[in-house]
Specification:
The protein has 198 residues and is an alpha/beta fold. It has a single domain (4-196), classed as Aspartate Aminotransferase, domain 2 (3-Layer(aba) Sandwich). The chain contains five helices and seven strands, in the order αβαβαβββββαα. The chain has a five-stranded mixed beta sheet, sandwiched between helices. Strand 4 and strand 5 (84-86) form a beta hairpin. Helix 1 (4-18) packs across helix 5 (163-172). The longest helix has 15 residues, at 4-18. The N and C termini lie far apart (49 Å).
């Protein structure tokens, strides 16, 4: 039966495949990006005009000072001048870019198709521990105590990956075949959507 160790095993496999030191599994890529934005606390950022809806919606949700950017991109892009990468469609052995928070998606159309799920690839152990706590409602995911038995010191979010999804990921990882490269041209220009009229 899958357990929390299944999630840790999946994270380790992802990190080894991509060549990062760590991976933090999440319930989706959008929440992976949101966690990185909250953690790094950027207050000014740009967003490509051509990307998925949830990215500018997340910037609005976080009440960030943001603006649109004309950006040509392939497989992944950097959110403005940050080190946060929306790499939802990225799947490449040793494809991690050093010193970034590279956010992946495992939605059903992505190379590793799990129906739902995401991850953050990263280098730094302190960042890894902090983001792991953030995915688990601020709880220490490495503690053997129940949440009632240890002190929660930081705000967290209910954005963790469930073990059943991680188990699917471990089963399917060896069979991933990279599909076509995605570019900005695979997305509509979001500035034409009424919801984003500014």
């Amino acid at each position: 039966m899958p357990s929390y160790d299944t999630v840790l095993n999946f994270e380790n496999r992802l990190a080894n495949f991509f060549g990062s030191n760590f991976a933090v599994a999440t319930d989706c890529c959008t929440h992976a990006i949101e966690l990185c934005l909250r953690y790094k606390n950027f207050n000014k950022i740009s967003c490509p005009k051509q990307t998925y809806l949830s990215i500018p919606m997340t910037l609005e949700k976080l009440n960030l000072n943001w603006h649109w950017e004309d950006l040509q991109w392939k497989d992944y892009y950097r959110l403005g001048n940050t080190n946060i990468l929306d790499a939802a469609n990225h799947w490449e052995e040793n494809g991690y870019i050093k010193d970034t928070f590279m956010c992946l998606s495992f939605q059903f159309k992505k190379p590793l198709s799990l129906g739902r799920g995401g991850a953050i690839l990263l280098d730094n152990k302190d960042d890894y521990i902090a983001l792991k706590k953030m995915t688990h409602d601020g709880r220490d995911p490495f503690s053997n105590d129940t949440w009632k038995e240890h002190e929660v010191e930081t705000i967290g979010y209910h954005y963790y990956m469930i073990p059943e999804i991680a188990e699917q990921g471990l089963t399917k990882m060896n069979d991933v075949k990279k599909s076509k490269s995605w570019t900005n041209n695979d997305y509509p220009t979001l500035t034409t959507f009424k919801v984003f009229e500014r």
